[in-house]
Specification:
Low-confidence stretches: 1-6
Strand order of the largest sheet: 9-10-11-16-15-14-12-13
Number of helices: 20
GO molecular function: acid-amino acid ligase activity
Strand content: 15-25%
Family: Belongs to the IAA-amido conjugating enzyme family.
Helix content: 25-40%
Protein name: Probable indole-3-acetic acid-amido synthetase GH3.5
Pfam family, one: GH3
Keywords: Ligase
Length: 575
């Protein structure tokens, strides 16, 4: 399928195609399901549900059950172990993606095929076409902080790597980026380098070498962009020396990376002086990105959900440069494209592409009988309502619960525009209290405001439910950029406790059924250790998301955090 992709990129044509698809969204959904079931009806998985050749939505939803990854894991494992029969798909699966989420501390396996690659490119092209109307770019380069993890072979000989690695390694991806006038300014040896720290340094150096050509700064997640420029603050003088002398820093020891970078690096004292002058003239690094890259048009990456806490710092580096939130998808597949690029990340919506999968939506408003509501189709969702998304795609996932909660914010023609709300699974819960990732984020934002006078900020955070204590209580871990007084941190701790407004939590705290919230401040660099741990498990930096709650099964992570605690405070808010 992928070979057919035309590398002449015509934004108007892409928009026209999108408009046609979304005008007939309901009909396109029926056709898409029919196509998926025709191609895969003979598989081991689908045959057991007695569809007997039926391809209509009513038969499909009546016979095939809703599932989670746990239900499909044995089938995916069979494929990974080399079973060549049509287990989940009619055509063989040749590649496995590792998701950024984890199952018992290890990344989940998800099937990846040509159809998923094609939908990836369709999403990229669609959002780019709309973005380019508002923020046109000429022939230039993209400074992309992308890192590929090593691919390995499964027991059955299938190539396995993170979803981002599988995309970056695909020849079509590079051709598409080139057609969209945003080729990466770093060579492959940097992207696919084995040492993340060396690759990050070289990405920054490549950006500076091509600083006048850079039009877009991007990464998979906003976290990686913030991390890159936090690193720049530490190493900028060394980068300037490399450019001045045309000699690569001795910190780069990987031979292939050194060789590729040495071909790009030439002595340029004038450019070095300019960069030095720009950096020296900044106040607390405000506006660093436009200062370094005068022709940059915007910053691009996933900025919703667990990435929202990094927006404040990203805006500090970006100054007036627009932040563009990337499209909505997961390792399991894509859902929607950002076709309203003028919206800030906090308000961004995603228009569902009705031909890349079959989508169902479970209403979050429960039934009066206590049973879970019946999922509705894409054409039946209601404005303002919240739903959990269910995905059926071309890569062997059938009625798969993604676990994401979305809100219907509007419609583009007949297709819904979704706003990501949160992951459905509860983060923090001891008894009747129910707090999500969003609740934790809002509490941290409220408490972090108290640090402003101390000229400190929260670099990163996570949480844990301590049920070993009696009564159990919430623990919030903070890494700070600078020192803060005990008095201020005690206030922060109290503010965190009071900011969880869930009725179950408030009632339990007042009745002492939940103990005082604990704020633990960890050493600088602790969350970097967590990233290193994730990479050590085979994950890619591009896919790293700080876990917002560390469960009891993740003992290694908990140990890293607890070993690095330098200060601890208990809330007195409900005393």
């Amino acid at each position: 399928m992928v070979e057919k992709t035309d590398m002449k990129f015509d934004p108007e044509e892409v928009i026209e195609e999108f408009e046609a698809l979304t005008k007939e969204a309901g009909k396109v959904q029926e056709e898409t399901l029919k196509k998926i079931l025709k191609e895969n009806g003979g598989t081991v998985y689908l045959q057991q549900w007695g569809l007997n050749g039926r391809t209509d939505a009513e038969s499909f939803t009546a016979r095939v059950p809703l599932v989670t990854h746990k239900d499909l894991e044995p089938y995916i494992q069979r494929i990974a172990d080399g079973d060549l029969s049509p287990v989940l798909t009619g055509k063989p699966i040749t590649t496995i993606s590792l998701s950024s989420g984890t199952t018992q501390g290890r990344p989940k396996f998800v099937p990846f095929n040509d159809e998923l690659m094609e939908s990836t490119l369709q999403i990229y092209k669609t959002s780019f076409a709309f973005r380019n109307k508002e923020f046109p770019i000429g022939n230039g380069k993209a400074l992309q902080f992308i890192y590929s993890s090593k691919q390995f072979k499964t027991k059955g000989g299938l190539a396995a790597g993170t979803a981002t690695t599988n995309v970056y390694r695909n020849a079509q991806f590079k051709k598409t980026m080139k057609a969209m006038q945003t080729p990466c300014c770093s060579p492959d040896e940097v992207i696919f380098g084995p040492d993340f720290h060396q690759s990050l340094y070289c990405h920054l150096l490549c950006g500076l070498i091509f600083r006048d050509e850079v039009q877009v700064i991007s990464s998979t997640f906003a976290h990686s962009i913030v991390q890159a420029f936090r690193t720049f603050e530490q190493v900028w003088e060394e980068l300037v020396v490399d450019i001045r002398e045309g000699v690569l820093s001795s910190r780069i020891t990987v031979p292939s990376t050194r060789s590729a970078m040495s071909k790009l690096l030439k002595p340029d004292p004038e450019q070095a002086d300019t960069i030095f002058r720009k950096c020296s003239g900044l106040s607390n690094w405000y506006g660093l990105i436009p200062a370094l890259f005068p022709n940059a048009k915007y910053i691009y990456g996933i900025m919703t959900g667990s990435m929202e806490p990094y927006l404040k710092k990203l805006r500090h580096y970006a100054a007036e440069l627009p932040l563009q939130s990337a499209d909505y998808g997961s390792s399991e597949g894509w859902i929607g494209a950002n076709v309203n690029p003028k919206l800030p990340p906090e308000l961004v919506t995603y228009a569902v592409l009705p031909n890349i999968g079959y989508f169902e939506f479970i209403p979050l408003r429960g039934n009066l009988d206590g049973l879970e509501p019946t999922p509705v189709g894409l054409a039946e969702v209601k404005l303002g309502e919240e739903y959990e998304i269910v995905v059926t795609n071309f890569a062997g996932l059938y009625r798969y619960r993604l676990g994401d909660v979305v809100k219907i914010k509007g419609f583009h023609n007949a297709t819904p525009e979704l706003q990501f709300i949160c992951r459905r699974n509860l983060l923090l819960s001891i008894n009747i209290d129910k707090n999500t990732e969003k609740d934790l984020q809002l509490a941290v934002e409220a408490a972090a405001k108290l640090l402003v006078d101390e000229k400190s900020e929260v670099v990163d955070f996570t949480s844990h439910v301590n049920v070993a204590a009696d009564p159990g209580h919430y623990v919030v871990f903070w890494e700070l950029s600078g020192e803060a007084s005990d008095e201020t941190l005690q206030e922060c701790c109290n503010c965190l406790d009071k900011s969880f407004v869930d009725a179950g939590y408030l009632g339990s705290r007042k009745a002492n059924a939940i103990g005082a919230l604990e704020l633990r401040v960890v050493k600088r660099g602790t969350f970097h250790k967590i990233l290193d741990h994730f990479v050590g498990l085979g994950g890619a930096v591009s896919q790293f998301k700080t876990p917002r709650c560390v469960g009891p099964n993740n003992s290694t992570l908990l140990q890293i955090l607890c070993n690095d605690v330098v200060k601890s405070y208990f809330s007195t808010a409900f005393c």
